[in-house]
Amino acid sequence: MSTPMPKQELGSALPAARARLVRELRAQRIDDGRVLAAIGKLPRHEFVEDAWHTEAYKNKPLPIGLSQTISQPYIVALMTQLLLQGGIRKKVLEVGTGSGYQSAVLAEVFAAVFSVERIKPLAEQARARLRRLGYRNIHCGYADGGEGWAAHAPYDGIIVTAAAAEVPRALLKQLARGGRMVIPVGPPGHQQLRVIDRTPHGLEAQDVSAVSFVPLLPGKV
Ligand code: SAH
After folding, report:
1. What is the CATH number of the domain that holds 122?
2. Which residues of 115-153 are buried (b: 16+ CB within 10 A; e: fewer)?
3. Over the stretch 117-157, which tens digit does the pLDDT of each residue have?
4. Which of 12, 71, 99, 212 is catalytic?
5. In whole numbers, what is the pLDDT of the chain averaged over residues?
6. 193: domain range?
7. Is the CB of 125 inside a 6 Å radius of any atom of ligand 1?
8. SS3 of residue 11 by DSSP
9. Which of 43, 61, 80, 91 has its CA 20 to 30 A from that of 138?
10. Tens of pLDDT along 54-89?
């Protein structure tokens, strides 16, 4: 068994570990400076349990308990970059708060973030964590995000971090004109990351890459 790295040591290794991650993302064609700056700045280790601290700056997903995962940094970066390419950066809805890491990345590049999670302990943990880290522009909700968050709609951006069999109608309804949704769609093993734009001529969709997400589930627990 390997001995966990003492906190102090991790602390001094942090800037180098983050810089390495940013270089890896650049090599994977993440080229939006705002996204790279956010990932270069955020303490991803604060979003996972202590046992995973030394893995936190590797480009891979990690468990966050209750059978859920914090997404791979590359996927977080890709989805954020796709949303930014949609153009408008005011209000974004995230479905699947999980650890809150993606919410924090969004909060660095959007004016206001609304994020919903269906598992109560995760929703509460993420809310407390994001408050502790000083984010005032993230609003966390405990709800079935398949229904969106109608009270604050419409959204310029909608990002879903769990895979849906089909794009939920409620989310399409809450997407503003000129807005963009990024959502993984399809059954396990056959998911595609889909980008949907609400253009003046209606909805336009394109699939951009194969992905692997936990499922979007109905109801809250
Ligand atoms: N964005 C997260 C990724 C978490 S994994 C992060 O950065 O850590 C996906 C999350 O989606 C899980 O926490 C899961 O509970 C949540 N989820 C699944 N279906 C949901 C639904 N219908 N509404 C809200 N959250 C949902």
Report:
1. 3.40.50.150
2. bbbbbeebbebbbebbeeeebeebbbbbbbbbbbbeeeb
3. 999 999 999 999 999 999 999 999 999 999 999 999 999 99
4. 71
5. 94
6. 63-211
7. no
8. helix
9. 61
10. 999 999 999 999 999 999 999 999 999 999 998 878
